[in-house]
Amino acid sequence: MWLRGLALAALAWAAGAEAAQHEGLESIRQRGYLRICADPSNLPYSSNDPAAPGFEVELARLIAAELGVTARLEWRATYVRAIKPLRDGACELFMGLPVDRRFREGNPWIAVSRPYYTMTHGLVTRADAGSLTIADLKGQRVAVELASIAEFYVAYRDVVRGLYKTQEQAFQAAARDEAVAAFLWFPLAAWLARGRADLKVVAVSDEGLAFPIGAGVRKRDPGLAEAIDAAVERVLASGQAQEVLARYGIESARRTSREPSCSPFVLVQEKDPRETGRALFSTACSRCHGAEGVGGGTGGALPKLRNYDGGYDKFYRLVWEGRKNTAMAAFKGILSPDEVRALYEYLTSLPRQ
Ligand code: HEC
User: Fold this and answer.
1) Could you tell me if the CB of 331 is within 6 A of ligand 1?
2) Residue 327 in contact with ligand 1 by CB distance below 6 A
3) Radius of gyration over alpha carbons of the chain, in Å?
4) CB neighbours (10 Å) of residue 280?
5) What DSSP state is assigned to residue 10?
6) Whole-prediction pTM value?
């Protein structure tokens, strides 16, 4: 599932490889089934438990039916290189991919259909907490997954970040009152909170937190991208898709969210790179280089990065390759070149100290 791969370290999915095999619409119709890669244990998205298949699996079955074929699930774990099986030809369809420019540019061999839902974030709090937003949680501890989009988001809001290795652990922290709230993907939050009258989940779909989600296929498979897109259009028009999503609590996400930011165009807009740089710096660099680049945390001996004047090329090379025999690691494969640029823009925009 795409969302597990969203963590910072996984942003470097291999791009542009060749599809191993070409399975166009015609050959799929002839053989009578569509192969779908899905994670066997990633609820609420997908699962190989027939009693609880997950909404992506249910939606994939509807899409296959629209093509006039049956669905055949190819179970593949997704926490590493989620989309590799699609690239390698293990299946023709991979659900749950973001309709966004960055993903498209990083994976030019994939075509993603029109979105069938918008993935937002969810704020999990006590049911009796009143109506809360992140802004109301100033100074309080909010549980987030380390290096997740939620962490980036709260990093420059005045909350105390409680960092956890997984979204589930962040949720459990709020459920145990170790944090006043947890902030994670809405579908997972709704799933984990199901049946818990003591908790509630509020959808938050501010810019940067909401992602239109579609179904992915290889561009090289003749006729398939168009057919899948049309199938998605039909399962939305008939209301079947909404019915599935509602059973997983996701329709309610749309009702409580602020609709405008559900537009796919939100993600296509250019963000100020300094904003991106600021969020990245606080997650990836500040523990050594100090908040806002004021200099070394514990050792105290690191140069003030906000005063860095070695020029972009040198900065890029240093961050990309790291510096041998020092704590300065290579960020190649963790950050994208755009992100290194954003870090540079951010640092050089800060007043010298
Ligand atoms: C684990 C600690 C650590 C982290 C995290 C870290 N750095 Fe460093 N960084 C260092 C150390 C230590 C040095 C000094 C290396 C040396 O002795 O030359 C350094 C040096 C640098 C320098 C060279 C400064 C100069 O003037 O020579 C740059 C630029 C830099 N880091 C950028 C970054 C950026 C950007 C990030 C985040 C993406 C980052 N660092 C994350 C430890 C860290």
Assistant:
1) yes
2) yes
3) 21
4) 23
5) G
6) 0.62
CA distance linking residue 73 with residue 111, whole number of Å: 20
Query: Looking only at Cα atoms, what is the longest distance across the chain?
Result: 69
Select the highest-mean-pLDDT range: 186-190, 273-277, 290-294, 332-336: 186-190
Could you report the per-residue pLDDT of 166-196, keeping only the tens digit for each? Answer: 999 999 999 999 999 999 999 999 999 998 8
Give the span between the Cα atoms of 162 and 148, in whole angstroms.
12
Alpha helices in 71-202 (DSSP H): 84-88, 101-106, 149-155, 167-175, 186-192
Q: Which of 22-26, 218-222, 329-333 has the highest mean pLDDT?
A: 218-222
Ligand 1 centroid distance, CA of 48 (Å): 44
How would you classify the pairing of strands 33-38 and 70-75?
parallel
Q: Which residue blocks in the chain are alpha helix, DSSP H?
A: 25-31, 55-66, 84-88, 101-106, 149-155, 167-175, 186-192, 224-237, 240-247, 251-256, 265-268, 273-280, 286-289, 312-321, 337-349
Between CA 44 and CA 58 the distance in angstroms is 11
Structure tokens at 332: 């190649």
**What per-residue confidence (pLDDT) applies to 330?**
82
Lowest mean per-residue pLDDT among 102-106, 137-141, 238-242? 102-106
Mean residue pLDDT of the chain comes to 83
Cβ of residue 289 lying under 6 Å from some atom of ligand 1: yes
Which is the closest atom of ligand 1 to the Cα of 314? Answer: 29
227, 235 in Cβ contact below 8 A?
no
pLDDT value of residue 251: 65
Q: Are residues 317 and 273 in contact, defined by beta-carbon separation less than 8 angstroms? A: no
Domains of the chain (ranges; CATH) run 2-118+212-266 (3.40.190.10), 121-204 (3.40.190.10), 273-349 (1.10.760.10)
User: Whose alpha carbon is nearest atom 40 of ligand 1?
Assistant: 285
- Alpha-carbon 183 to chain mean position: 13
How far is C-alpha 277 from the geometric centre of its chain's CA atoms?
Answer: 18
325 within ligand 1 shell (Cβ under 6 A): no
